[in-house]
Amino acid sequence: MAAFGIHFGTCSSCLAVYKDGQTDVIANDLGDRVTPCVVAFTEYEQSVGAAAKQGIIRNANNSICHVKKVIGRDFNDALVQDYISTWPVTVTNKDGFCQFDVEYKGKPASFSPVEIASNIYAKMLETAESHGGRGIKDAVLAVPSNFTPKQRELISEAASKAGFNVLRLINEPAAAALAYDLGQEKHNEECCVLVLRLGGTSTDATILQVNHGIYQVISSVTLEKYGGENFTDVLTENLVSEFKRQAKCDIKDNRRSMTKLRLAAEMCKHTLSTLPNAQCAVDSLYDGIDFHYNVSRGRFEILCNNLLQQCVQLIEQILREAKLSKSDINKVILCGGGANVPILQKSISECLLDSVLLTSITCDEVIAIGAAKQTAFLVGKEPGDIKRNAESNEIRCLSHDVAVKVENESNKPLIVLPKSSLIPSRKQHSFILQEEQTTLRMEIYEMGSDDQSQDLLAKIIMRDLPAGATIQSSFHLRRDGDLHITCQETTSKKEESVTIAIS
């Protein structure tokens, strides 16, 4: 039996196969082991992957990138609005969610994020079938640990529409640990592991406690707007300055020239991961002027100094939150394409001197390989024996703080379920109304990773209560990820409740 593990990233995707007890990454039709997550529409066709990415230079308004950023998010979400201001493709509001408006075969066309994601999954299925995987549909999908139930549902839907039979979703940190067989080959293994995923546009740091094959999340931190593309940006800015010096032309406001130069900078960055020098060559960069420049790894590393410090600060932040010291971390797993930068790996190694840095698997293939290894527990089982999202060797935890605001003198948010609370779990809190207060107004929030943003989940209002009443509140985080909240006035036994889906 065989099955696939898929890592659908913001910038690129990777497909791995589990067969006959072995896992391997499958290269696409161009021989690349990762595929850009770009879908483009033209007068003649729809393209996915490298061809679509190269076409952005001339077809930016009809090219869709980074769809993972917006899938399952409300149209008014800050990340969605940031996406709209960044990318030239037209994004409109349909029923409170995103819709991409493009021109396809000479006519206006609209696509949802799920449809775009499904096109990318279809490309991966095509890759699988071209390498002898015809008829094999089973797959495990790796998703961010902070994905909401809605986002998980939509990602699964996108893969199913493409033709995959989704066996299970697995959180990316757990997939990374599985890729290195932590706790699997040595079942009595106990260790504390830092999983550092540097994606294209965001970075996650997760501390896992590995205990006899069970993975428990101790703490998790996400840093938005920090990833591999930031390293590309600093190199691009340097190349813009160099072209201005050579040609006496400033191309910062020329979108087409900037796109061409940025693609060249990205290629240089990848080259510098393995070689000491990279040649940047762009024909007709601006006004018919060619650009040629040699970039050294040393120069690139100097440009990245501030970015390296941010990564070290992220590690220090998660250690503080977990109340751990650097010496408590036994192993570090690097994953995500952004982690391939040698100077970044060196900085992490120097920050965690007592830890073993695991880099034997190419960083942008780690999560897909781990997802493929997860299929080893699932293939050959009856459909009724497999519960999508069911627990296997991973202990599920809450990805964000859940807080409540009760109208009183302070009106400050009170964290009732802290991030990394085990699922399921239960907490209780008592609230006392002020002497003249006869109404309880409780707002339930999911707190953002920056401790400033707050997502309102629900409200509970209880009226005609005794003045100064005591309200006993119960917060039950259920196994399915739903949060059930009950508020009861202790004297009259008057009660209100609400059930909400959280991440």
From TrEMBL:
It comes from the Eukaryota. Its main location: cytoplasm. GO terms for molecular function: ATP binding; ATP-dependent protein folding chaperone. CDD domains: ASKHA_NBD_HSP70_HSPA14. Keywords: ATP-binding, Chaperone, Cytoplasm, Nucleotide-binding. It is found in: Cytoplasm, Cytosol. Pfam families: HSP70. One of its GO terms (cellular component) is cytosol. Belongs to the heat shock protein 70 family. This is Heat shock 70 kDa protein 14. The lineage of its organism: Eukaryota, Metazoa, Spiralia, Lophotrochozoa, Mollusca.
